[in-house]
Amino acid sequence: MSDLIIEKIISLINNRNRDNHDLYKNNGYINLLSLYQQAIFEQSNDQEVLNLNIRNFKKVEFKSFDSKNLVGIVHLNEKKTNKWILACHGFSSSKESSAIASYYFNKLGYNIFAFDFRNHGESDDAIITMGVNEEKDLKSALDFLKKNYKVKELGLIGFSMGAHTINRFALSNDLKSYNIRFAITDSPYFETTKVLKKIINSIGGPVIGNILDKVLQGVYKVYNNNYKIDIEFDTITYRIALCEKTFPILYLHSKKDSVTDYKDSEKFHSLRKILNVKDSLHIFLTGEHIRTQVMHPEMYWKLVENFINKK
């Protein structure tokens, strides 16, 4: 397999979201928030999303484990509260999307904190690892939140890669005193290799399709040798048996999701039963990848609210 092909594929994986730096000039994140807010309203017709005052979002910055600069945005609820929701975006997305997708928590009396994973949005360039180093970014975000704000109660919400990252962290035995009460994971994937295969196939199309397995092996080799990330053998299955403390997770997915498999949410839910934690699962019959929120907003947020109230 040509090293040039492998390098090109890895470059494409890590540059799909890096052409929007101009969007962030002069507090451009507000404009992005506005675009996402309008899009969700138009698709869901949920007036509640318009009640989120995007002008109240303020930018913050902090460092990850390897000194990469990560950028986040904070929205303080109009009614003073120590309840927080931390939102994690998906691959090739940004903090603005996950912040707006968390809009209903504003009604529930939460402050909202969203941040850009490495190599996304306004955060520093770095190799995307589909959850491995992103899990450490999430921990850095939690440390920042704990250090700079009073956090009495904390929830997490993640979408696709962000959902996978939360599931990893939930089994990390590194929860310390974060006081995480619950998490919502929307359309997670279970295996990094499985979703990476789909991403590479979507990038390369029919040409790559014929040599996909060889390309994957080349990508795994580069990640392993150059970045010390063993994607092929990095699995979270073993963590479940070793997990000593976790928090309840609500799994939301759609049978029509063509990017991540709804059976992955079922797998998470089933395997975590040994942890004796009150997880919950709902599989929608319709809705594309991370689109059930806009297709079924009333049901979606009712499930979330009921889940939180039972904790």
From TrEMBL:
Matches recorded under Gene3D superfamilies: alpha/beta hydrolase (3.40.50.1820)
InterPro entries in the record: AB_hydrolase_1 (IPR000073), AB_hydrolase_fold (IPR029058), DNA-binding_regulatory (IPR052920), DUF829_TMEM53 (IPR008547)
Pfam families hit by this protein: Abhydrolase_1, DUF829
AB hydrolase-1 domain: residues covered: 84-173
Name of the protein in its database record: AB hydrolase-1 domain-containing protein
Source lineage: Bacteria, Bacillati, Mycoplasmatota, Mollicutes, Entomoplasmatales
Superkingdom of this protein's organism: Bacteria
